[in-house]
Amino acid sequence: MTAVLSSAPGDYWNFDRTANALKITGAWIGQAMPVLEPSMEALVATIADQRQGDQVKIDLSAVESLDTFGAVLLIQLQNTLETRKVKAQLDQVPGHLQELLDRVVAVAAGVKPCPPTTNPVRATIERVGQGSKAVAAEALALIEMLGMVCRALAGVIRNPGRLRWHATVQQMEATGINALPIVGLLSLLIGMVLAYLSAVQLKNFGAEILVVNIIGLAVLREIGVLLAAIILAGRSGSAFTAQIGTMKVNQEVDAMQTMGLDVIEVLVLPRIMALVITLPLVGFYAAMAGLLGGGLAGYLLLDISPSVFLEQLQTAVTANDLIVTLIKAPVFAFAIALVGCFQGLKVTGSAQSVGQMTTRSVVVSICLVIILDAFFAILFQAVGL
Amino acid sequence: MTDPATSHSPDNVIEVRGLRTQFGTQIIHDGLDLDVHRGEVLGIVGGSGTGKSVLLREIIGLLRPATGDVSLFGARLWDLDRQARLPVLRRCGVLFQDGALFSSMTVAENIELPIRERGGVSTDLAQAVSRIKVQMVGLPANAADKYPSELSGGMRKRAGLARALALDPDIVFLDEPTAGLDPISAADFDQLIKDLQQALGLTVFMVTHDLDSLYAICDRIAVLVDKKITTGTMAEVQAVGHPWIEDYFNGPRGRAAHPASTAGQEGKT
User: I need a labelling partner for A287 at 20 to 30 A (CA). Which of A180, A337, A345, B3 fits?
Assistant: First the structure.
């Protein structure tokens, strides 16, 4: 069945001057295209040179086999000759090939050309414009979602029985308890790095003891909760998007809606509640782990004994520093969970969309957390906390 | 039945001899023989779980049988390495159940992918061929630039068929091509397969549950019962007298699909 393919274009066609006909020979099939396709220019030139009058025949009587690729090439040849004012006619088509050729001719007439390529500068500007529009639309949709969540929350506050307690507790376990090892380890290490870094500088001034102040303030006010929020955004925010997104792909969300269930109440609220409860706890835990790491590094590196460390810590930080963390944490949690669920609900159709939205969920929620953190820094400065 | 020692006959595109498939302790096929002739439409039927799709996967080299020989165009895929398999596999087109179109690509890109992978074809020609395939399977021209998620189930099947036909294969494998289609679309799809089979001289290996398809387009039927296959024309298979085959063709749905018996059914019940 597989024909032996020649690598010489001359084995596929030759122009018979006396008959004024192009004889097609050999196998005009996809595998022959590397030889055939580049030879088309020479073929057109040959015909243009040697033809008599403005009509030629394309004689197919000796063709070995022909598939869609070969048929398309023949039709393209006909069209090219047409533009050179040569009318080429297919002649002596073997019966079993007629149907294939007819089909290709019929559909080739209706085939629209590939979309023209646009000017790259214009395309870039267009993309910037469309991107900005999309960002604006997304911000608006996120605010709309915030409104829906608040409404659902109000409903649950009026009637606490409506909150899915089981789902909420389950999510608390997944987002809180299961995150403890990784959050603890990372915070401990960051605390140690911070202590080490500041110790090297402070040693120059003989003020090693101030390492404790730096660690205490930094870990309690900023790093503990920020680290916890970023880890949970990567761990849980993405999980929210993937879970809800997969449910959308499986049409589970549609099924829920037809049963009259409120998607926000069933899927979104338990996740937001869970994260709002767990993030302050995980944040506090991260701060403690950070202090432990700092203390450890101080003890090993600077010979600051644990009792000295604690004494210095008491003078360095106040309860306010911890309160600051506990105010920020639920707000971060709300933002992460809201974005995670929002992106999940935006998933459409395909599996690829789930991946895309999950990535976006992590990026957007981490951005939001850092923007909110900056906002809080200014706010606390203003109120003197 | 067939002598396992018979050498490959040039008129057989597929030859399966003494095939045994086993998942754990569960035996799916045992001593199964099957020939697929060049240019025929073969319909594979059998109850759920009898291993119709498994057989298809074994023939195209996705699943290794426990024992037995499977030859495709005279080549035993399991004896070949990846590189040596390619020329054999490029003569096959496969339509998976829900099309299995790559969701990150448009329909046209899906069809161009195997063409580009084989190489040697200019971008222009690859695009022209892919657009012709789109029209050949009866999709509107604007479907070429859509993503699979933007198409209906029936359109996805057609697009999957277009991709299966991208390299002008000698044989196409269809896994339940009409499942999930409405009766009119299913009949259209049957007709499309028949038309393309005749126009392109294809061999068609079709796993199906659809009795209408069997009557409408299959030249021969292969029934999977008792871990083996019984092949023959519709009349031959029905004459075998196996209880499952009796039930299958003479049950209420089987009778309804039978073109000759529909006239007789009217007015009876």
Answer: A337
B168 pLDDT more than 80? yes
- Mark yes or no for CB contact B135/A349 under 8 Å: no
CB–CB contact A67 B168 (8 Å)? yes
Query: Residues 93-152, chain B: which have Cβ within 8 Å of A?
Result: 103-104, 115, 118-122, 125, 127-129, 131-133, 135-136, 141-142, 145, 147-150
Q: What is the pLDDT of residues A205-257, one digit of tens each?
A: 888 889 999 999 999 999 999 999 999 999 999 999 999 999 988 888 888 88
pLDDT in tens, A216-225: 999 999 999 9
State the Cα–Cα distance between residues B99 and B162, nearest whole angstrom. Answer: 10
3-state secondary structure labels for all residues of chain B:
CCCCCCCCCCCEEEEEEEEEEEECCEEEEEEEEEEEECCCEEEEEECCCCCHHHHHHHHCCCCCCCEEEEEECCECHHHCCHHHHHHHHCCEEEECCCCCCCCCCCHHHHHHHHHHHHCCCCHHHHHHHHHHHHHHCCCCHHHHHCCHHHCCHHHHHHHHHHHHCCCCCCEEEEECCCCCCCHHHHHHHHHHHHHHHHHHCCEEEEECCCHHHHHHHCCEEEEEECCEEEEECHHHHHCCCCHHHHHHHHCHHHHHHCHHHHHHHCCCC
Q: Which amino acid is at A345?
A: L
Identify the band that residue B263 occupies on the pLDDT scale cut at 50, 70 and 90: very low
